[in-house]
Specification:
Layout lengths: L1 H80 L1
Length: 82
């Protein structure tokens, strides 16, 4: 009896396993694909925000440098006029 079940069992479970794989594998594949797209979008947004903050910091540094140089030039020109 057990030997017969062992012989017949693969034929009974194979279609169920095949159907399970056909149903679950595409879902898993598309889920991974969707997560990959979401990761790439999040990475892009993060990179853009980092770039934008670096640009703001650079712009502020340049403005501070220009203001400092203008103050130095203004002070030196006032000193030479007197």
């Amino acid at each position: 009896m057990i030997a017969i079940l062992l012989i017949i069992a693969p034929y009974l479970f194979a279609p169920a396993l095949f159907a399970f794989v056909l149903l679950i594998y595409p879902i898993a594949f598309y889920t991974l694909f969707i997560f990959l797209i979401l990761y790439l979008v999040a990475y892009g947004i993060s990179s853009y925000l980092k770039y934008r903050s670096q640009q703001k910091a650079l712009r502020k540094a340049v403005q501070d440098y220009v203001a400092k140089k203008r103050a130095e030039i203004s002070a030196s020109s006032k000193g030479s006029n007197n």
